[in-house]
Structure formats: structure tokens, C-alpha cells
Specification:
- With 584 residues, the chain is of the alpha/beta class.
- The protein has four domains: 183 residues, Rossmann fold (3-Layer(aba) Sandwich), CATH 3.40.50.11890; 105 residues, Rossmann fold, CATH 3.40.50.11900; 93 residues, 2-Layer Sandwich (Nucleotidyltransferase, domain 5), CATH 3.30.420.40; 141 residues, ATPase, nucleotide binding domain (Nucleotidyltransferase, domain 5, 2-Layer Sandwich), CATH 3.30.420.
- It is built from 20 helices and 19 strands.
- It has a five-stranded mixed beta sheet, sandwiched between helices. Strands 12-11-10-13-14 form a five-stranded mixed beta sheet, sandwiched between helices. A five-stranded mixed beta sheet has the order 17-16-15-18-19, with helices on both faces.
- Helix 3 packs parallel to helix 4, helix 5 packs across helix 10 and helix 8 packs antiparallel against helix 9.
- The longest helix has 22 residues.
- The chain is elongated and about 85 Å long.
- The termini are far apart.
């Protein structure tokens, strides 16, 4: 399917594309330059105006990019229904000089190859008529080099569309080069046949016509259809055997699997790979905007820590023994609601701890927590051998020696508080985490909910405000419930509306609160299932003090969810212990 405005002969043809099956070599044969469409847009203003509100973030990002003033020629591939909708929107607007939708087969058999060959020939005719140029096989094959699969030790990025900024973020947070094997990375595995390559390298199309047939385009397509289809298949291709590489691969140390928000299909593939794979894997999700970058930082750093070990700066060990009071390590956990600090001595014993509200500035609350925990311990900051930060604001705390993600710190702290624990449920102010541990306390897998207040401490605080209760009264009242009340919405805004309606119907307060406790438990249990969490469970974070949520989690998970007097200090304790272990 194609759309063209009739404007031709414009110099510097640049075709934007979004799929690795886009026939860029074919288009290059007509003098075009092909560029991968960057979809890290800052907003969806145009897309929200032009498309349905429920279109996924990637579809909106594509529309936003293709409607930019520098977009003139676009070739899309029908990888999913969303791309078809994007094509419909762009065709309706009619702003592009050239627009084409290539329908890609789902299989790679002979019938599918013949069908794709016909469609490529149609694209060639359409683009030739638009650009006013004929096909040059030499241009098409210029620079074609077969992709060589890697076997060296590496981390692989799989799944949905990886833009350069996303790849850079993954490499930065994992601390090394990452193999891009997502659906936008082209992987032509075969070279052109010798006769075609020789013909195009010697004297252009005249030689090509003499050696490979009367029509260089036909000769090119004979080879190209197979080369295009025989790439490592993307998720949409019905070729299970060829995707066995998802489950491992020579030299692969770990997999970062990227999905698009609200796209179930990639989630299915991730689930299969996570169940049957033999290398560590973490799932990340973006929505097609540049705003997603900050939300990836913690989970990528934590995954890197599980792959490489916690690389605390060992040079600070030189401080040990500089004073006369022994070895002391401070851990500071800067969360969105509270800032917690703990100091351990050289034997790993907790000598002092403190929990303070974070307030408006993470750095200021951290400074207060450091000062108070030092005062309680009877120590000076110069007595500290090492200071380790963790949590939401870990990079904003001045005067710390190093930082470790809260995933790794909560795992270490939980193993210290309850050595038999296999799964940690951490519900804090702004996010929820479930961490699956090995018998020796290492992180096996983890999952985070950090894009929505649903199921977090903020959610419970908001509901307490709606019911005009203090948080302590809210938590205590919920334990007196008598009748089940179902809160169906997990969105904080919509749940608030449900609560207001229940209050208006004179539903007992305790029953409403119990319904909210169960809604948090169901949300958290979903996270737990995603990482194959298993008992014994330990709950950490501020919400561990909410007995109603703990009881609801026990009921939903079918196993006791324990707490500890120091549950809220788990991250700070883990940070301090990890720092101490780095000195040994």
C-alpha cells in the first residue's frame, strides 16, 4: 500500500523506517538514504490529536516522529496492528511526499518468499515512479556485509525497538558494551551471490545485465527476498525453532528484555524466555518517550550488580584503621517518604539506626539522618571507614563514598534479618519491589512497579486522606473489618472515586480499608508471580508496619508474610553490610 503526493525529483531522498525487515538496500538502489526513526520523543501532542487515545506509546511516538517537519518519505512494515493504524493516520493527513506500508509474511517458506517478492517489486515500482530514478544494483549492494553473530561474553538487549538513547542507557548502567538484538537491529546473515556482487562491482548495470540477466532488479530480488526474511526472526514471525537463541546463546552473560508499555505480545515472549532461559534476565519497559529514561536506572544498575557483583570502590579501604576507634560503616537509604540510616561495626553488629521523614529535599534529610545516627552511636563522621548510599535519592547525597541500588541492599539486609527468607516484598513510598533470593541471599530475579502509585505507601496515604484519617488510625481500623469489599481499580485516582462512592453508600470504614489492603496485596502478588517468588517471605519498607496489608498478602500468596522489627531499616542495614564486606 502506498501514498505519494506527486512531488518528485527532490534532492537528498531520506526514507524513515522502523523495522529491521524494511528493504533499505532496495531503496538505496534508487538513490535513497534510509534512517531509523528515532522515537524518543518529548511528548505525544500531535499523536493525541490525530490518533485514538488507546494507541500504544510506540505507535504514538512513531506518529509524532513522522509528523515532524523533516519527515518526507516513510516506509513502514506491518509488524503489528498498531503500525497499520499509524499508516492510516499518516495517509489521512497527507503531509508526506512518499508513504508505503509493506505487508510482511509471518512465515519463511517458499510461498511466503514468492509473496514477499511480489510486494518488494511493487514497492520498487512505486518508489521508482515517485523518485524518477531507475534501480542501480551497485548502489543497492554498496556496503552490504553479512551480520556475524557474536559468541564473546556479553549482555544482549532483546525485545522491542531499541533507539540509540535506550541502548546508550543500558550500556551506561551495565558498565559495558551491549549487543543489540531487538526488532530494529538489522541482521542480514548472507552475502550476495558472487556473480551478482562481481557484476555490480565491475562496470555497473551494463555488466550486471550481461552477467545476471536482462533486469538487474529481478536478479537482485532473487537473492534479496531470502536475505531479508532469513534474519534472526522477530517476535511476529511464526518460527519458534529460530528463536531458541532467546533461551541462551554462546557467551551470553545476561539478557535485558525491552517491552513497550501496554503491549502484551512482548510480555508473552518475555514470560516464555524467563521460564525456559538459562541466563539471568531483567525486563525493562518504556513508553516511547524520553521521559522513560530515569525510570530504567535502578533496575538496570541492580541487574548489573547481579551480573558483576557489587563493585564497591575498594580504594576506600585505605581509610580503615586511619582512626583509633575501629571499623565502622554507615548505610543511608534515601527513600521518597523516609530516609533511614544505620551504622555497623567491624563485626557487622548494628550500633545505631534512625528513621526520619524525607521531606522536600533528599540531600537535606540525608544530612539530618547522618548527623542523628552518628550522635546516637557516639561517633564522628571521621570515624566512618566507609559510607554507602542507596535508595531513590542515593545519587543526591553529598559526602558518601559509593552507592548501591536498593535491590541489592534490600536483598542483603533481608538475608541478615532472616537468613532463611527466599523472597523479599518491599513496599515503599513510591514503588513496590519483589526480590527472589537464592538460599545464600543473592538476587535471583526481581521486579519493580515504579511508574504508578498503585500498591505503594503513597496509595495508602492518599486513601487515608480521602477518609480523613491519620495513617496510623487508617491501618489500625482496617483490622476490624467484617465484610469483603472489592476495590476493582488499581489506579489511585479511580480507586479514590470508588472509595468516595462506598463512603456515600455508608459502607463501614473498616470494610473499605480492608478492601484497599486486599487491592494492594493483589497488585503485589502479581509482581511476585512474575519472578517465581517463593516462601519464606519477608516484607520490608514502610508499609511493613501496616498489619492489614501484611495479613492480606499472607492470604493472597497462601503463605505467611513475615516482618521484622527492623524491616523499614532493611535497605540501610544492607548498604552498611555490603560496604563492610567490600573492606574484607
Amino acid at each position: 500500500m502506498s501514498e505519494a503526493s506527486g512531488r518528485r525529483g527532490r534532492e537528498g531522498h531520506i526514507v524513515l523506517y522502523a523495522c529491521k525487515y524494511t528493504p533499505v538496500e532496495l531503496l538505496r538502489g534508487f538513490g535513497a538514504t534510509c534512517e531509523l526513526a528515532e522515537t524518543d520523543v518529548s511528548s505525544f501532542d500531535e499523536a493525541d490529536r490525530l490518533a485514538h487515545a488507546n494507541l500504544c506509546g510506540y505507535g504514538k511516538a512513531l506518529i509524532e516522529r513522522m509528523m515532524a517537519s523533516d519527515a518526507h518519505e516513510v516506509v513502514l512494515v506491518s509488524c503489528c496492528d498498531v503500525v497499520r493504524r499509524v499508516y492510516d493516520v499518516l495517509a489521512r493527513e497527507g503531509r508526506l511526499d512518499f508513504l508505503y506500508l509493506l505487508d510482511l509474511p509471518h512465515k519463511r517458506g517458499e510461498a511466503e518468499r514468492r509473496l514477499l517478492r511480489e510486494r518488494l517489486a511493487d514497492l520498487a515500482r512505486s518508489y521508482s515512479a515517485y523518485a524518477g530514478t531507475s534501480f542501480d544494483a551497485g548502489l543497492a549492494l554498496a556496503g552490504v556485509e553479512p551480520f556475524v553473530p557474536r559468541t564473546d561474553p556479553r549482555v544482549t538487549l532483546l525485545g522491542a525497538h531499541a533507539t540509540p538513547p535506550l541502548l546508550e542507557a543500558v550500556e551506561r548502567d551495565l558498565g559495558g558494551a551491549v549487543e543489540n538484538a531487538t526488532c530494529t537491529n538489522r541482521q542480514l546473515l548472507v552475502s550476495p551471490p558472487p556473480e551478482l556482487a562481481r557484476a555490480t562491482s565491475e562496470s555497473g548495470c551494463d555488466a550486471c545485465e550481461g552477467r545476471v540477466g536482462a533486469d538487474p532488479l529481478e536478479a537482485f530480488l532473487d537473492w534479496y527476498v531470502g536475505a531479508l526474511l532469513d534474519q534472526t526472526p522477530c517476535m511476529r514471525m511464526d518460527d519458534v525453532a529460530a528463536r531458541e537463541a532467546l533461551r541462551g546463546g554462546t557467551g551470553r552473560r545476561g539478557i535485558v528484555y525491552h517491552t513497550m508499555k501496554f503491549c502484551d505480545y512482548y510480555g508473552f515472549e518475555y514470560g516464555e524466555a524467563a521460564r525456559e532461559g538459562d541466563v539471568p534476565m531483567v525486563k525493562i519497559e518504556t513508553d516511547g518517550t524520553s521521559q522513560s529514561a530515569g525510570q530504567l536506572h535502578t533496575r538496570l544498575e541492580a541487574f548489573g550488580e547481579t551480573l558483576h557483583g557489587t563493585e564497591v570502590a575498594h580504594e576506600v579501604a585505605a581509610k580503615r584503621g586511619a582512626g583509633t576507634r575501629g571499623t565502622y560503616v554507615m548505610g543511608v537509604d534515601s527513600g521518597s517518604t523516609s530516609t533511614d540510616a544505620a551504622i555497623v561495626d567491624g563485626e557487622g553488629r548494628i550500633v545505631a539506626s534512625v528513621i526520619l521523614p524525607t521531606g522536600a529535599r533528599a540531600s537535606e534529610s540525608a544530612a539530618r539522618a547522618k548527623a542523628e545516627v552518628l550522635e546516637r552511636a557516639g561517633l564522628e563522621e571521621t570515624d566512618m571507614t566507609l559510607k554507602v548510599s542507596t535508595g531513590y535519592g542515593r545519587d543526591a547525597i553529598p559526602g558518601m563514598d559509593t552507592s548501591i541500588t536498593e535491590i541489592t541492599c534490600h536483598a542483603r539486609g533481608a538475608h541478615e534479618l532472616a537468613p532463611d527468607v527466599r523472597s523479599v516484598i518491599d513496599i515503599g513510598g513510591q514503588d513496590s519491589k519483589v526480590i527472589h533470593l537464592s538460599p545464600t541471599g543473592e538476587v535471583v530475579n526481581f521486579v519493580m512497579n515504579d511508574k504508578c502509585a498503585a500498591g505503594t505507601g503513597r496509595f495508602m496515604e492518599a486513601m487515608a486522606r480521602v477518609m480523613e484519617m491519620s495513617l496510623d488510625d487508617f491501618c489500625r481500623t482496617g483490622m476490624a473489618w467484617k465484610h469483603d469489599v472489592r476495590i476493582s481499580s488499581m489506579c489511585t485516582v479511580f480507586a479514590e472515586s470508588e472509595v468516595v462512592s462506598l463512603v456515600a453508600d455508608d459502607t463501614p470504614t473498616a470494610d473499605i480499608i480492608h478492601g484497599l489492603d486486599e487491592s494492594v496485596a493483589r497488585k503485589t502478588a502479581t509482581l511476585a508471580h512474575r519472578v517465581n517468588a517463593e516462601p519464606p517471605y519477608l516484607m520490608t519498607g514502610g508499609v511493613a508496619q501496616n498489619e492489614g496489608v501484611v495479613k492480606a498478602l499472607t492470604d493472597v500468596l497462601g503463605a505467611e508474610v513475615r516482618t521484622h522489627p527492623d524491616s523499614q531499616l532493611c535497605g540501610a542495614i544492607g548498604a552498611a553490610l555490603l560496604g563492610l564486606e567490600s573492606l574484607r
